[in-house]
Amino acid sequence: MPSSDVLIVGGGLHGCSVALHLAMRGASVTLVEKDYPGRHASGVNAGGVRSLGRHLAEVPLSMASMELWHRIEDLVDDDCGFESHGQVKLAESEADLEKCRARAEELRQAGFDHEEVIGEDELRDLVPAAAPHVVGGLVSRGDGAALPFRTVQAFRNKAERLGAQFVEGVAVEKIRRHGRIFVAQLTDGREFMAPVLVNAAGAWAGRIAESFGEVVPLEVVAPMLMITERRPPFLRPVVGATSRTLSFKQFGNGTVLIGGGYLGRADPDTNRTILDYPKLGENARTVRDLFPVMQDARIVRAWAGIEARMADGIPVIGPSATEDGLFHSFGYSLHGFQLGPICGSIIAELVSTGRTNLPTAPFSIGRFANQAA
To answer: Does residue 332 have a pLDDT over 90?
Structure first.
């Protein structure tokens, strides 16, 4: 029975990041992915590298992760297509602008100043194609975007070069304890064992947690995206909206990615997603309203990924509350891509040393214990 120091279930960005950071610390690592790394949410999301608008508990992690993004090539030997042109949240009214001011003040009170309120003149400098009724916004200048699938593969490839083993195309059927060892039985009959187990199984992570007595309010969702034909260049930052659902960016080849969190339907048992076309239409109308230049744009493709969303909108990061040697990293709730580099480092720290300097208490799985009871 093959053995290693750590067994990771799930080959999305977070699982691959854990594998890399553990391998950098000299641990032997086996990662099992039922499809292929980046098959689901990690490889098909919008690629936003965003600190803008995060839950206050996530901000310290996001700031630390942004430092890694700005030197991502040093970490994984690939720039991951990362570009930093900022992210802007548009304000369409004075009421929206007041929300932006309140958010910036909330962050300032917490010791952060990366989100800045901008007026209409600066907004026009940053986003000249915005509709005439837009009056300002909120900007995080160090934010940007990367290519999701390329990023996952970069983390995977670097981890493999450092000795991590990837087992893909076969699912974990069940996990049991044999003394202090976790034994994972795969659907093809193989077994892998390790004294440490990392649950990074995304939309399927709740099942693993539940098998160890940790029931969590995890909803499986299918965030949808669209991409357009090529358009003349008109946008450099990634753009969102204060009072509407939107994530909007233009690639270097002219195509425009439209998303922001509209949901289709997900079936995690079959790996299938079903698009909700009325919601996609609403998403497209938001773009038309905010960017007149897009009124005649043609959508060429739409898709959805399968992802886990927690009831409180923030992930589960850290050790199990019931099982020694079990660590969780899941439930990133449609905004985990930017956190991938640092959360892999956090789990590796916790596995190796039992502690981390970053504040992870808000993400403890123990916060759901009373709900499960």
So the answer is: yes
